[in-house]
# Entry
Amino acid sequence: MIREALAGKRVLITGVTGFLGQAVLERVLSELPETRVIALVRPRGRRSGRDRLVQLADKPVLARWRERVGSHEARRVLTEDVEVVQGDLDAPPRLPGDLDVVLHCAAAVAFDPPIDEGCANNIEGPVNLYRALRQSGARPHVVHVSTAYVAGDRKGVIDEAPLAHHIDWRAELTAARQARPDAERASREPRRLEAWQHQASKVHRKAGPQTTAGDVERRRVDWVEQRLVDAGRARAQSLGWPDVYTLTKALGERAAEQMAGGATDGPTRPADAHASGEQALALPLSIVRPSIVESALRHPYPGWIDGFKMAEPLIIAYGRGVLPEFPGIPEGVVDFIPVDLVACGLLAVAAQPPEAGAPAYYHISSGSRNPLTFNRMYELVRDYFRAHPMPQRDFGEASVPEWSFPGRGWVERRLGLAERAVATADRVVTRLPRSTRTRGWMSRIHQRRRQVEFLRRYADLYAAYAEAEVIYTDDRAHRLHQQLPAEERDAFGFDAADIDWREYLQDIHCPSVTAPMRHTSPRVEPRTPRPEPAEQPVMAVFDLEGTLLASNVIEGYLWLRLADLPARDWPGELAGVARSLPKYLATERRDRSAFLREVYRRYAGASLAGLQQLVAEEASDLLLSRVSPAGLRQVRAHRACGHHTVLLTGALDVLVEPLRPLFDEVVAARLGVRDGRCTGYLAEPPVVGEARAEWLTHRAARLAADLRGSYAYGDSHSDLPLLERVGNPVVVNPDPALYQTARARRWPIERWQHAGGGRVALPAPAAAGRAAPGATMRAGP
Amino acid sequence: MSRPGMVLEVDERTPPLLVHAGESVHLQQFPLGTRVVYPPDSLPGVGDVDAAIHTALESPHDSPPLRELLWPGMRLTIAFDDISVPLPPMRPPDVRQRVIEAVLEQAAAIGVDDVELISAIALHRRMTPEEMKAVVGERVFRSFWPERLRNHDAEDPNGLAYLGQTDHGEAVEINRRAAESDLLVYVNVTYVAMNGGHKSVPVGLASYRSLQPHHNVGVVRHSAFNDPPQSAMHHSYQRMGAVVADHVRVFTVETTVNNDPFPEQLGFLNKREWEWGVGDQARYLALRRANALAPTAVRHKVWQATRAPYQITGVNAGATDPVHERTLATLYRQQLTEVDGQSDVLIFGLPYLCPYNVDSIMNPILVMCLGLGYFFNMYRNRPLVRQGGALIMFHPVPWEFHQVHHPSYVDFFEEVLAETTDPAQIESKFEAQYATDPWYVHLYRNSHAYHGVHPFYMWYWGAKALSHLSEVIVVGGDRRSCARMGFRSASTFNDALEMAADSVGHSPSLTYLHNPPLSMGEVR
# Structure
């Protein structure tokens, strides 16, 4: 029946590189050599439509066919025999005028796209296809792939028939198009921008205004997307569909019916339609509605699947033991259908065109004649994982939870609780001082948050499918199957009653989808790149405080000040610093640069030569006792490779003098001096935050250095702009904010031990016999 | 005359014996038949030290009196041992201060103006002003610091003088000021036999280049440090000393101390255990308790602040060789005990202090050096333990470093030992890199850091023991630190014996080299 009907026919397939399209192509190439395939393929990046098609020759879907015909022949067929029409349905190219069949498999299967994207893909796409067909002059049989779930939120039995609704798809399309400009406009309202500014500056204030601005814009763009997604879901649910995917697929069907039935145009470009002089001729149209398409039952081989579809992430998550419960009705039917049954069904439908103007409807689904209940599926999957547990990294094998189907409300409450707990933990821990323990907590919270986000996403998206109390009848598709002659049943059989669910889930589907996840390689933490000699000059920039040195400017001040004072004057000085401490800390949180200026005011009146001597005699050893040996080794490794090593710090230049021999260049704060005494003001603004990034860019240009090959080491969120500029950023003992960024961007995180870290180191008091104690550093303000 | 040393054989009546383990001491029951080597009791001092110094300077060995070697307008340099000796540092006044003051008095009387004092630190860390003051005394410090009293700088290109080669081709390069003086007076304190003699000038004032000929794995493996006639290293010193003598007149003043390292309240540490009185027992318990209660930092501080009430047992001056011969004789009289034959296992407890962590931290490499370099070598004739025997030492070996004093040690431990512990491989693969690293050189010259190559020497110091022994077990040692160094750590002494059974069987002969006080075996 199929062979005969399609022999010598010219068949256009859209979406041929997609999951279903590949399966259809495989069936045609393997079983229908006399059928001519025309593929509509969009170019992607540098790859042309033809390249993308030919690449299919090496994919698993064509493995069996390739083995049979030889890989040379396989490539030849895809290069020569299959015609390629390059383009996509946003603006379809001219189609051949002699098409006999169109298999419209192209679709975007994201359930919650922004409303305008959903409409563009699932309504405008088909509309454009029909218009292009009309313009080509061809009158092919169009097989329009939809989904069983176009029926929307309904209960009971759904027949293979036109959808009963009166929604004006043109109006929905127009509204959807308008949603984006509206959202864009709304996103620019001052109160929104101010709110984002407020949130972003809380996180990025230390890093500087440019970083903050970048974050505000990111938040705005994310907001627009989210608003469009929400708009889609809300609109769908207001009309009785669970999500924008099913709504737009339903409207797409209506558009197809109208366009194929002779409607002259959509609202897309009314002018074009008239100009091109389209003829309002009806096309034979078959609408095929598969249910949840999963891995192959037989063809090209049992278990074939291309990427993860709907149920896989959940199956894997369950197998890993991280899905404690899921909303769902145990008696509800989970309507799975293997992809090859859908492909074969499509070809069978293609072989039997209906009358033009009288569309035919088919459900390709399992729920009616071979139902799989949610509970049964759960048991089969659970037993599969009990027999074949998933390995866990470093912890043996995962044990799978027992579900009790407590209902949506319970799951919802638990999830809400978990979300709040994670958010609270996150808020608390980012305010804690940095330490190995804090980082350990953060990494656990990070993991937990990802888990909760995953659960939330899947619970929201898929709950409707797991709670469906609906049966899609497939009498018509079944009748079609019955007409298949016995000799075609092996190659094209698509009877869902053939599926043995135990065998399918436990021997075919689960093994196939878990196979790639079963290799447990040890977790690969990003490693600090080993310095290598390079041809172009390379810079290695090191932050000092917190990175190379376990100390800060206040401690540095105390080293000098206390070393200059006899012990009896220490309490007064220490009390003075302690009094200013809250003010300093507050300033530091707000603005690093202002903080430095404030602390350095304490040096007003100090003798520069005296400071230098104090550093040489007292502070030098204190400083060296607080540096990280691993950090120094890294500096020297860079030097050994000929890199231009830079110490970039807000600390005083006199104080970092002992480290100068390690670096090619030291950029530090310089105190203004008049008559040999410090003025308490800086000679120039300190290089902190974003100024560091600018400094680096400027310096790299002067040195003709390659920033992508360069290195930067920093510990604080304020180093972020600097780290972002180089190709090899390394985060050292990070503060919580930087830690999170580093984890997200997979930057290497170093834990450099600092000797005596944590405690304040104090110098020996000035000897009693010293000529003029306190003379070097006159008391600060 | 003090009581001679003895070898005790442990029997049923033997009480638990004192063992040093870092900053703690404890009483350990030894298996029956263990031989315990005790040194002779502390020798009495010379009485009036200043008078002894005066006598030595006035009637030196094979030399005219110091007075006759001085003249107005001459260049006089006084070099002296640094704080690495004696251990623990002695109570003030330091004997070096007394000798230096005596020399300076004579020089002043004769009208010598061009006088400089140099601490012979070789590649050790520079002494701080306070440490310098403790060694030379307040008066000398005030007059000479910092221009005319300073640390030797082995990396100062202008401060070194190349004196030529020995007949073995060994380069001799020492401090320029010392080499170009009309008289070089060397003031020494000897408390172990490996020091003094020609180790003073050609080593203490040398450059890296001039240390290489004897501070290497090959020479160390052929050296019994405390038995100079059997030490390739001392032969090299001797040859270099001859080259030095061709260029500059050296007037050596050597002093020896007795075996009183601990102050009165810790006096029981110096006693044989069966002679402890009730007071000693009480003080032992008090020490244990205080040690257990004190935070690490406090414990460090207290132990490091310990000053020894040494008595001076001899002052000799004159030509280096005859002086050193007398020094050694005194020293052996104090430390040497005759031991009959080698044993399968040698045992000792390591104290908290070695020459390189005065006012500092005893890092794992120093533990290795103290055990395998110094204590293993406390013998004359042949080692206390047989070839292929086992060594059991007591020390906590914390993974701890002083970053200012031992920066290259940190890297040596992290980088070099992580790759290999074989001294010869370490020498060929890493020594040059560390020795010439500009950052280490900078720290040695400007901060208070041991030279970059110093941890290598520490490791080489143990090279002979490493090839002699089949097993090193550290009781109470930090597992990670010990493993990094290729040693095994045992929780208890009995476990250590059990572990040693692999190499020496289940009933090995045991020798415990009792410490404190310092003892040395004359092995027949």
